[in-house]
Amino acid sequence: MGVGSVLHKSGEGVQLGTMPSVLLRTLLLVAVLAACDGPPAAPAVPDDPDPPDGGDPPGGPATGWAFEATFDGDPGAPSQSALPAEFDYSVTHRTHPRDHDPAFAAFPADHGMDCAGPSPQADPVPQHAVTTSHRSSGRAPDESFFVCRNHLMSSMGDVEGYSVTAFWPRQEFDFADGGVLEFDVNLTAAARSWWEVVIVPRDQLKVGAARSWLPIDETYPRDRILLDFFGGTRRLEVGTGAVDPEGWIAGASDWGAWADRHPGDPANDDRRIRRSMRLHLGDDELIWAVQTADGALDSLVLEVPGGLPFTRGLVLFKTHAYTPRKDGNTDTYTFHWDDVRFTGPVVGRYDAYETESLVYLQANGSRGVGESASATLDLPRTGPDPVLFGQVHNAMRGQVRVRVNDGPERVVEPVDWTETSCHAAGWTSFRLPVPDDEWRVGANEVRFTIGPRPACVAGWVWDGFSIKGLEVQMPVTPG
Length: 479
What we know:
By secondary structure, the chain is mainly β. 5% of the residues lie in helices and 39% in strands. The chain has two domains: 339 residues, Jelly Rolls, CATH 2.60.120.200; 125 residues, Jelly Rolls. The chain has three helices and 29 strands. A hairpin with a 5-residue loop joins strand 25 and strand 26. The two termini are 44 Å apart. The N terminus is likely disordered.
């Protein structure tokens, strides 16, 4: 991993990293950010506070936001219907019950059934029980996603191993001429539950990815920008050319957790408090600024030698849960998000038309080559450049076959092969362009078939696979 420059600017002073050659530019950039923001001190904490208003970052008022979601909605109970339709919502569980269908055991999520906020002074803390399954989609989001009090929650408890949730706008973030990504989130941290934000090119989208050493079957794609808040410590990294654990070209992190560097911050213990986060993207530099309790900025700066490897991608907001009860955590599973927005031209918008069906072609043993099962995708329209997207379980090279209506049979392959070049045991994302003339308005049959077994797969691996999160993505035409 390359070493980038690091600068922290807070009430404790300025601490410099390892590259004095970038000191002057770094100080100037932080000074510009502070001058543009000029935020007031944070107000007292109400039942569900908004973060202190730091003003608009450079690029906001001057050029406008290319995308903005404020999650406005104050339902009387935690609501999936209030979730914005321009996002997709995915859940990936490493383990699965038979047929991948029944829900896992319930776990507590923040906000009571009346949407009362999780005040640390309340006894008990207002929460409600949610369940989770493999069926989450934009059409029918998992219960682990919901809206209360004008912001969005993503949560995941201890459900037999490892789980990843992801939600993202169906619109690409273009930062070719520089850009700003902004969002608000709480800073409370647990050792085995954390959040991250990942920017990836759309053709490399992986919804269940994690670091290669974690117990899940999909790693970060070839090109990625990662903002990680693991254990309450910021880590900012850029990778290209190879899937994780390879390909990292630059990285920087804080010297310690936020609570250690800001011991008086009430956000350390009160998960109702959301702090404004801003990622500024330049040609060869990233700045991750977090607003502190007094409205100042604490900025982590990363130099990327040779420049960013890509300049356009989807922005995924993710939660990770890795058997959190092992850390003694029994109820801190929820992250509170608000005011997601980014600058740039309005490009790369797409609709997704989904099915709630799960295609189950597995068993406690092998399934026969040639067996098939289908799902129905209802389309209100057809259009250019449609893409079939979803996740496949137990993919073998060449064995996952699909046919849309009366079109030809095609092979489904994961976006990347991460275990071997021949077999991926767990859930992996796939993307398959299917010509527009094979689709029609109304019901479309998408039939999956078990193809021949490749010789490169070990003999103990059973034939068969499953499909979830199946959708057709089509560009939104201007106007």
